[in-house]
């Protein structure tokens, strides 16, 4: 409905309403009560509130970076003083490198890559849709390969839980490292994105998106330090608050708390820095921060409905329903491939790879033990499927943030990146089927 009507909020609400009607046995009164309860539940959940706060504060920080001239100064330095970006290929490669190097937190990765890439892509007549694709296709995939982040903490916890139940033995870190090596979708997504940039491959809706923006000249102005300081604060802040919330262990830190506290710290320090350097007056800092928050209200509303429909599909036990058919009809050789599909569908429907991992690992590992299938391959299929579905999903927070950070229409971003993601997903499915038959 969202792809056809281009009205994301109405489409999401329609899905939530239909789901609640089914759950409440078609009772209108019960459905209305359920909708109110769902709203209250979401707005009283700490990590969701922190995510909303992060989104709004992120708008403030981005707006201050632009208004201070930091983004323009940074891009001018790259294109004129250092002469690092002279072509459209170089512009997207820089965004790609940023997406790969900053792997600690997907939202921060997309924010930084989008802020740097927007003026570069406009200057080289590259559509915002292609920029959004590169940002989205590097953030989550690289974070699921270099798991020194929340993904790693979650997966280690889930694997340890299966060990305590007696389904697995050994070291949880060893299991995770072996599974990462077989994380076919994430590896393919990074390879395909690089090839798309290098060979300028445009397929489907991406061909038409290329002519949307006129070429914009990059003129001298601002100072790169006004962008570098906020970026350093954001990256350093995530590490700092992951360390603090994890009581000295970064892998055990709270991702939602870390990014929220990071943005609060960054906004105050950056505002103070700009006032100290007399780049902006105190009143101007406050007004521009509020304008940044206002620009994020629409995208935060989409995220609220995305969380709501994810909760509805969870209440309907979609994952358990799909998985209930697997054991009866499959041979061990096909288990990894089908687990990949199930995880993909679940992640696409809920918009969360985290939730998919949490649901699928306790289902997939016992299935692998029962059917005498390769547990490492099945575990890798859960990770790949979760990232693939999340990458394609229009209600994924990473997809939504990628649209926002790059200034791309959300529906256009989903439509333009889908062919590339589906190609990588199809190859990943074939590889899981092949490896499953060989092992």
Explained architecture:
It is built from 23 helices and no strands. Helix 7 (106-123) packs parallel to helix 22 (397-406). The protein is globular. It starts with a helix and ends with a helix. With 439 residues, it is an all-alpha fold. The protein has helices at 2-5, 8-23, 28-43, 46-67, 70-81, 88-101, 106-123, 128-143, 150-164, 172-181, 184-199, 206-209, 225-245, 255-276, 282-295, 297-315, 318-323, 326-329, 332-350, 353-371, 375-392, 397-406, 410-438.
Topology summary:
Elements: H1 2-5, H2 8-23, H3 28-43, H4 46-67, H5 70-81, H6 88-101, H7 106-123, H8 128-143, H9 150-164, H10 172-181, H11 184-199, H12 206-209, H13 225-245, H14 255-276, H15 282-295, H16 297-315, H17 318-323, H18 326-329, H19 332-350, H20 353-371, H21 375-392, H22 397-406, H23 410-438
Query: Shape from CA axes?
Result: globular
Succession of helices and strands: HHHHHHHHHHHHHHHHHHHHHHH
Overall pLDDT score: 85
Provide a count of the helices.
23
Provide keyphrases for this structure.
globular; mainly alpha; single chain; 78% helix; 439 residues
Summed up, what is this model?
This protein is an all-alpha fold and 439 residues long. It has helices at 2-5, 8-23, 28-43, 46-67, 70-81, 88-101, 106-123, 128-143, 150-164, 172-181, 184-199, 206-209, 225-245, 255-276, 282-295, 297-315, 318-323, 326-329, 332-350, 353-371, 375-392, 397-406, 410-438.
